[in-house]
Predict the 3D structure of the following.
Amino acid sequence: MHQSKKGNQYYFGMKAHIGVDDESGLVHSVVGTAANVADISQVEKLLHGDENVVCADAGYTGVEKRPEHAGREVIWQVAARTRSSINAAPCTKPSA
């Protein structure tokens, strides 16, 4: 088992990456990894090849740019990262 850090908190354990058919709701693939494995690295194992649309959380941001998915003709719907997770600069008022 490995550890991963989110913010200032360390987590130990495993993650389950699950591929689900959006029409039937049935699970078609499950991949278990150590907690420190990036979600985006498991996409190839979760897709079966007949997808038209892929919906994913923010852990899969940038998946459509990866070379192993260049030939896929799917619509990628990936949730946006939250403002705090991208360490956005604080807003400032324009100077007069």
About this structure: The mean pLDDT is 82. The first strand starts at residue 2 and ends at 6. Strands lie at 2-6, 9-20, 27-34, 53-56, 75-78. Residues 1 and 65 are 30 Å apart (CA to CA).
